[in-house]
Design brief:
237 residues, mainly alpha, four-stranded mixed beta sheet, 4 helices, 5% strand, binds zinc ion
Length: 237
Amino acid sequence: MEEFIARLLDLQDCDRDIDRLKADLESIPQEIKIHRKDTEGHEARFNLFRDNLDSIRGKQKKLAGDRADNVTRVTDYKSRLISLKSNSEYTAMLKQISHTEKMNDQIDNMIIEAMYEEDEASQVLERALKERDRAVKRSAIREESLREKLKEIESSLAVSQVRRAEIAAKVDQKQLKMYEKSRSAGHREVVTGIKNGSCGGCLTKIPPQSAGEIKGGKTYICPLCGSYVVWTTDSSF
Ligand SMILES: [Zn+2]
């Protein structure tokens, strides 16, 4: 392998590391966001179940109040019975009493039903609370480790960038410009290996004679993608 190719290859390996580190770095805030969203989902579920339980308890309170009012009413009706003069008034009052008592029978049934509802809603809420707390804890631990990872990546990136500057300083200026122009145009493998007799960059078949020369250490420029095609450890033809 020619000297300038070896240097470009070094540079390319270093740039590949930097690209990977940058991609990792970018993925972390996204991951943190996902964890937070998960926690918010649990929070929302918990709030929903809590509101449901609150509304059941509100209903129970209302039923108990209605029931007490009716009891008071019946007591009042009964106390007025003796002072009633006519038969029709008396019968009407008895009817009123019976009606109010029936209403309270219905309310009693509703109170029992609401008790079951409250029981169930309490259990659901308790489960949601546990799930929420677990999610919050899990998310906090995960976020902490992601922040650690972020710091590690940042320091690796700084090291790689220093290393890159050192390598780049050794590359011929013209070659470096060509390499950087090619990379910024989206060409990630300025130096590539020959794979199965083809250019590793664009997969164009390389004539057998040229392939043989590549194996012998000669530099070949792919006519299609412009990559330097060299013999690497995983090369074959
Ligand atoms: Zn090519």
